Amino acid sequence: MRNLAAAPVFSLGFRPFFLAGAAFAALAVAIWALWLYGRLPGAQPVGGMLAWHRHEMPFGFAVAIIAGFLLTAVPNWTGRPGLNGWPLIGLVLVWFFARLAWALPVSPVVLLLLQLPFLPLLAWVLGRDLVAAGKRDNYPVLLMVSLLAGCQVMTLWGLWTDDVGLQRRGVLAALWLVGGLMSLIGGRVIPFFIQRGLNRPATPAANPWPTRVLLVGGLFVALTFALGWQEVPSFWLAAVFGLMGVLQLFRLWRWHDRGLWHVPLLWSLYLAYVWLVVAVFAMALWHLGWMPLQSLATHSLAVGGVGGLILAMIARVSLGHTGRALMPSKVIVAGFVLVLFAGLLRVALVPFSGLGLGLSAVLWCLGFGVFLLRYTGVLFRSRV
């Protein structure tokens, strides 16, 4: 047992959580697609398959990757040791049993009790180190993780009370919080990765106000979803999304360097971030009555944005933090393309053809599958 705690895979948070999150991403979407096409008969989980899919993509998949990234980043920010060994194994098991509970014949009470501890525990671990190191500039990250826990409570309460509207509001609020976290973290690391990856000189510090406006805007948008204000088109909400879209476009313009198109670890991040901009402008168009389906904006963010940025980020972070050259194989580059096209098919083809969802799911599963194929050995082995 001592050897298990000392295994390289449990030396830092990104290793087990990136593997678990990527595996769950492929498995969960495969199960969802098979069920939608009538290829998965049998008993459904508590609340039905739609409730399971809504809950598990943000609170199972996305949260696992967020945990892996932050459990690795916070020690770098604070200079304090990262979670490892048995405490890390314990946190992974809390996440795992929450996923497993949906497949077991447990009561709704047991299901809820197994779901709730993970995010508060993660917030406590992160907060303990950030507060001890006095890293107040990173408190917004802690706030977003804590708010994600609140969204999960809201979603599960909707499941408990059979309130589908409450479930939906909790999930959408969580998704846009994840989008806000993408904007916050991406605003830090993407320009840094571009600068380092292309060996460019350091650029002057950007004006902090656009970043602050995007942070407040992201939190406000999540709140409006939680309160149900996004269910009816509104001109002033269109203006909020429009402002955020313009600021995000300005970011993309400021980060752009022609050299990034020759570096897969850079263009994959950049194009995934473009999906976030697409989602924001799509919401503005929906509120103006110029887009018929709000779900197109939702899946622009969820599939193209969150999925694409996660795959690009875990590929880059896994190489960097295991001491390997930042040169991804052709297979994982193909994975980047597969997930980006999964987003495109989910948004552009689904409104016109039922095949779009199945094709999107297949590309998504293949994209995360190739990550597991190429990176499982890397994440299980010691740092080079």
UniProtKB/TrEMBL annotation:
Leader sequence residues: none
UniProt cross-references to Pfam families, sorted A to Z: NnrS
InterPro entries reported in the protein's UniProt record: NnrS (IPR010266)
Segments traversing the membrane: 12-37, 57-74, 86-104, 110-127, 139-160, 172-193, 213-229, 235-253, 265-288, 300-319, 331-349, 355-373
Keyword terms, alphabetized: Membrane, Transmembrane, Transmembrane helix
Membrane recorded as keyword: yes
Protein name as it appears in the record: NnrS family protein
